[in-house]
TrEMBL record:
InterPro entries in UniProt: RNaseH-like_sf (IPR012337), RNaseH_sf (IPR036397)
Descriptive protein name: DNA polymerase
Gene3D superfamilies membership: Ribonuclease H-like superfamily/Ribonuclease H (3.30.420.10)
GO molecular function terms attached to this record: nucleic acid binding
Amino acid sequence: MQVRLAGELHQNAAVPLGPCGLDEVKQFQTYLSSYQINIVSKDHQNALIYTGPDQEKRIYLYLHDNHYDVITKMPGFFERSYYCHTCKKAYDHREDHLCPNACQCCRFPDCPIESWVHCNDCNRMFKSQACFDRHKQSSGKSICATMIKCPDCHRLIKRGPRDPEKHHCGMTKCLICKEYTRPGDHRCYMQPVEKRNEGLSDSDDSSEHPEDDVTEGGYDQMLFFDFECRQENGNHEPNLCVIQNEAGDEWVFEGDNTRNEFCEWLFQKERANCVVMAHNFQGYDSYFILQYLRENGVKYDVIVRGAKVLSLS
């Protein structure tokens, strides 16, 4: 039956039987006008190469080896907790994702102003009762539980790692020693970190949460890691990874899921400004990270010399 229905679809969409490229996909999209067709390509690091007009019903197809497979769940495909169909991004934490057209209050799109509602728990105002209700909803931490507004200086404060009760109006975080001080009163005793990667910018949250800024253009810490692998099946498969920083703090990942657990830990937001090194990064350890990035559709910049990886960011 599947073959018969596929043949009928080709006939109705006026697409000849045979291999289909993007031109043919556009013809199918025209016929299936009540659906949005999306094509994810293996040859483009699992990036979207085609997206049809926006519709409530969506079809995601995975193009690999000149073949199309259906993707039933986009979060599962990218091994993430959520997937945004508006900006087409996968993510793990709702509080860290904000679409360009999303409401600044509840972080949902298409949120019109009806009647402002005040929240006594986070001291913020919301555009409507629906907006208020959404900021309370969560499968983990709600928006209400992640930030609070100071009633005096009106600054938005993240709940943790610094308790909102310890907030003092007018104090800012020193970008060198990380202490909270009043501007003009603080004479930092530490030397600033030598600046690197001048093109890097602060995170998207920096304007909204100025107390959580990191040193612009510098790095927070250096991390050193090493993979150990087993080769029973002829392939190198990491089963141990040890990481240390300059202070001697150590993290260890072991077992069959070592590579994924290490990469998920490494690519968390708090380590976005770290410099990472390995003893044989050029010819060995970097390949496991590249493999993870490609499988998960993460964009990256790499500098190579022959088969050796000189830099990865």
